[in-house]
Amino acid sequence: QDATGGMALFSTAANGLVEGDSAEVRGTMDVFNNLQEVKNIDSVWSFGSGHPLPPPRNLLVTQASEASEAMLVRFRNVRFAQSGTFAGNTTYQISDGLNQLDVRIPTGSSLVGTPIPPGAIDAAGVLGQFQARYQLVPRLQADLVALPGPQITAAPVVDSLSDGGFRVRWTTLTPGTSKVYYGPGETTVDSSIVASEQSSHAV
């Protein structure tokens, strides 16, 4: 990737390149399942290492396109459709709540065997393509960043209401304390607190 765009390399001759290397390669242009790439690389010239990487390009799930192919990108506030642990040579999906994007974990990825993040995350990586579908390829665990704060998995509902009071229930992804503010109209004048940490809340 440079200031103008990115290009996939498919050749063992490029295996020695690492993040931050500046290089020039010579090979043959090809298209593999709609991914444009350079293959049959016969020459690699190095211009130094340790260069800073460009910041990821922030995209919406619906903005994955040729314009960002083979570039470092980021999708904010998305969730995995699957749970468990990552396996190699496997395709997963992230969603923004309405639209989905494939996430590809190659064989040999450092993510293989690590937990699939269960909540909302910012997901970064290199944008690729396989046939008609674009896919995000994360490089390492640091590309999948959990969003801070409580993540509500079931919205608060009133499940008990009487002349003497009411009860509110909700659930969160991770355990935490519970606090409900209440009062007449839109004015809150008091609160009720449950100090014990739990993921199923009732106040």
Describe the structure.
By secondary structure, the protein is mostly beta strands. It has no helices and 13 strands. The protein has a 5-stranded mixed barrel with strand order 5-6-7-9-8. The chain has a 3-stranded mixed sheet with strand order 1-3-2, with no helix packed on it. Strand 12 and strand 13 form a beta hairpin. The chain is elongated. It starts with 7 loop residues before the first strand and ends with a strand. The mean pLDDT is 93.
Question: Keywords for this structure?
Answer:
elongated, three-stranded mixed beta sheet, 13 strands, mainly beta, five-stranded mixed β-barrel, 54% strand, 203 residues
Q: What structural class results from the helix and strand content?
A: mainly beta
Report the portion of residues in β strands.
over 45%
Give the CA-CA distance, first to last residue: 53 Å
Rg, nearest Å: 23 Å
Q: Helix and strand layout, with pairings?
A:
Blueprint: E1 8-10, E2 23-32, E3 35-46, E4 57-59, E5 72-80, E6 90-95, E7 100-105, E8 121-130, E9 133-137, E10 144-146, E11 152-162, E12 165-182, E13 190-202
Brief account:
By secondary structure, the protein is mostly beta strands.
